[in-house]
Amino acid sequence: LVDQLPGSLGVEGVVVGVTIGDQSWLGAAGVDDTATDAPMTTDRRFRAASITKLYVDAAVLSLIDEGALSLEDRLAEWFPTFPNANDITVQMLMSHTAGVTTDWWLNPDLLQLALDDLGRTWTPREVIELMTTRPPAGPPGGAALYSNAGFVLLGEIAAQVAGTTIGGLIEDRVIRPLGLEHTTFGFENPPDLAHAYYDFQGQTIDVTAMPMQAMLSMAGAAGAIQTDATDLLAFVHALFGTDELLTDASRAFLSPDTPVPDRFWHGAMGYCPCETSSAGTVYSGWGHAGDIPGYFSTTAYFPASDTSVVVFLNRDIVDGVTFQHDALDLVIEQVAVLLEDSA
């Protein structure tokens, strides 16, 4: 399956990792560096993009477990001038039901701000001030509307409660306790970062050769984690499958085994195989996917078989079309089905 992925998906390289219980398997296929034809290897680090939201979930829920923060706390306590701040709760931000703007880089104005100075480092406060000027996407407590801006707000709330930065909080609450030696929250290229390819104005660009500080710092709590397959497998298993990071109550909140109305539930993404009824959908796995120029990734944990899966690609646009999550969801689902069949 891994050997076929670069050709079937139209990408340069791919890394896949699977852990079942205490047994792990890693595989890579395709090319890392097209300039030298260096093959992709399993130890390369990738920009995990929106998978970062799982690390923020872990940090936020750990503060809630300690009683330092509540799901019902209001955004107005920290950002009173943000639209609808009095009616937006921490839980709404986590579940993408806060009605916060969904504008992001697909919006030409915001994309241009990132492109105007690629080396600029944006602070969370600057990003939040910018998002304060965008109209709400919907009413607080309404339908789930995926919002990167909502997680920037959530990350800054958690950072202020803990008296640190969101990067420092993730380091303290996730990276250091789990011993994740190849995971960082930041805006600079680590030395083992996989080359990645992005189609821009008719050319394919190796994004590791260009500054990315503006885009990564604008993403911040919504997408600034860089990690490898081994570390991500360990993190996903610890988050969803053990009590190393969270209490049982918080893990059940993050990855329920009961019907839910939306695939994006409390900051995690549901993965199939699944069952759907009038009461909602029961997902067999929980995780997240991520997309940032040059990198497309997904990860999931399936509790029934104690299985964690990671897929990294070093391209996010093929023939001018950005990858849809379904492309990698099928890989995750196929792995899950194979494991169930073999069991």
Give a nutshell description of this structure.
By secondary structure, this protein is α+β, with helices and mostly antiparallel strands. The chain is built from 11 helices and 15 strands.
Q: What is the number of beta strands?
A: 15
Helicity range: 25-40%
Sheet with the most strands, sense and barrel status: 8 strands, antiparallel
**Poorly predicted sequence stretches spanning 5 or more consecutive residues:** none
Key terms:
single chain; 343 residues; alpha+beta; three-stranded antiparallel sheet
Describe the structure.
- This protein has 343 residues and is an alpha+beta fold.
- 34% of the residues lie in helices and 24% in strands.
- The chain is built from 11 helices and 15 strands.
- The strands form 4 sheets. An 8-stranded antiparallel sheet has the order 3-2-1-13-12-11-10-9.
- Strand 9 (264-265) and strand 10 (268-277) form a beta hairpin.
- Helix 2 crosses helix 6 (148-162) and helix 5 (124-132) crosses helix 6 (148-162).
- The protein is globular and about 55 Å long.
- The mean pLDDT is 92.
